[in-house]
Amino acid sequence: MQDFEKARNMFEDIASPFKIKRYFAEKFSLVKLTKIFLGHRADTLRNNKLMKQTLMAETCQYISIIETIKCIFTNERMQQLYMQTNKSEDKIMRDYCDGFNFAVHPLYNRFPEALQIQVYSDDLEQTNPLGSKTKIHKMGAIYFTLRNLPTKYNSSLANIHSCLLFNSTDKEKYGFENFLDPLL
User: Fold this and answer.
1) Residues 6+ away with beta carbon under 8 Å from 37
2) Which residues, other chains included, contact 114 with Cβ-Cβ below 8 Å and sequence gap of 6+?
3) Which pTM does this prediction carry?
4) How far apart are CA 174 and CA 119, in angstroms?
5) C-alpha distance from residue 69 to each of 86, 128, 129, 151 (Å)
């Protein structure tokens, strides 16, 4: 019976969002996000069957690429994988390191071990894509991967890191360049 009582209270130490964030920061090297203000939009809120117009802040959430990379390289295994070369020995093109652009790039000529950060964006739906509210809940995300790792790790989900999340309609309103500013 005591086991059931322990199980009932097993999440007591992380019972609030604040406690959850603190727990993950202490135990798992959580990289905290930064809220970036974009502007305001008019919105209608319902309060006890009353409709009220209000201004809502439009924001995006940025997760520092530099802090994420620092966190990644605290792992000794990642440091070892980073130091392995991706260049093929048999002259068959398997990776960016085997291509012409890598060979003539001034940075990679001077520093062949320089970080290769690949950044890409994607949109995702939080609702049924066939439903009526598809545009409202559509999110945009910018991710990055470290291309210096051996090829078999480059497509692994563990090597795909979020760095920016935003509402897709905000991208159209403020322009994609404004979302890239924190990354550069």
Assistant:
1) 57, 58, 59
2) 107, 108
3) 0.77
4) 20
5) 19, 34, 34, 18
Instruction: Please name the residues in contact with 143: beta carbons below 8 A apart, sequence gap of 6 or more.
Output: 119, 120, 121, 122, 160, 161, 162, 163
- Is the confidence at residue 128, as pLDDT, over 80? no
Q: How far does CA 160 lie from the centroid of its chain?
A: 8
**How many CB atoms sit inside 10 A of residue 142's CB?**
22
List, in sequence order, every residue forming a beta bridge with 122; answer none if it has no partner: 141
Do the strands 50-63 and 117-125 form a parallel or antiparallel pair, or are they unpaired?
unpaired
94: three-class secondary structure by DSSP: coil
Residue-wise pLDDT for 20-56, tens only, equals 888 877 887 788 889 999 889 888 888 887 888 888 8
Hey, is 66 helix, strand or coil?
helix
Residue 2 reports pLDDT greater than 60: yes
Strand-pair partners of 141: 122, 165
Residue 178: is it exposed, middle or buried by C-beta count within 10 angstroms (0-12/13-18/19+)? middle
* DSSP E strand stretches across the chain: 33-47, 50-63, 117-125, 138-146, 161-167
- Other C-beta atoms lying within 10 Å of the C-beta of residue 95: 17
Give strand ranges (E) for 48-97.
50-63
